[in-house]
Amino acid sequence: MRGKTCGVCGTGDGETKQEYQKPGGGVAISPQSFIQSWVFAGETCTDDCKLKREFVKLDKQVKLYGTDVKCYSTDPILQCMPNCKPSKTVPVKLGFHCIPTDTVVNLLDADFSQKCVDMYETREAHLACDCQC
Q: Where does the chain show beta strands of DSSP type E?
């Protein structure tokens, strides 16, 4: 069975770098981002789960190779639905892909999961939310 299984502990082949496989097959960069990837998000704020998965923008000014850039997470993290505020959070290490600041991005349609990682930062992921639906 060695190398023929899959799950939380990887493929059972003794290799330790690929252990945190996400639902899409990619490898999470931290235990926290691994856990985030497997949580079932809600659809609306009236669902039992008041969380949604979304790519987040790094909220600080960044220069990369002398150019002003804006950076977006390469993995979505759990965030509260609109009209909700986080009541419990956890720090999650994320990879960020950076693009020139004058590039237009629609975060609702954006998928940065296949982009290269330019830098790593820690962001607060939401675990529980208080809502006014």
A: 51-54, 62-64, 67-73, 77-80, 84-100, 119-131
Mean pLDDT of all residues in 33-39: 68
- Binned at pLDDT 50, 70 and 90, residue 104 comes out as confident
Task: Identify the CA nearest to 27 among candidates 15, 40, 45, 44.
Answer: 15
**pLDDT of 93 strictly over 80:** yes
pLDDT(111) > 90: no
Given a contact cutoff of 8 angstroms between Cβ atoms, the answer to whether 125 and 89 are in contact is yes
From CA 76, how far away is CA 52, in angstroms rounded? Answer: 9
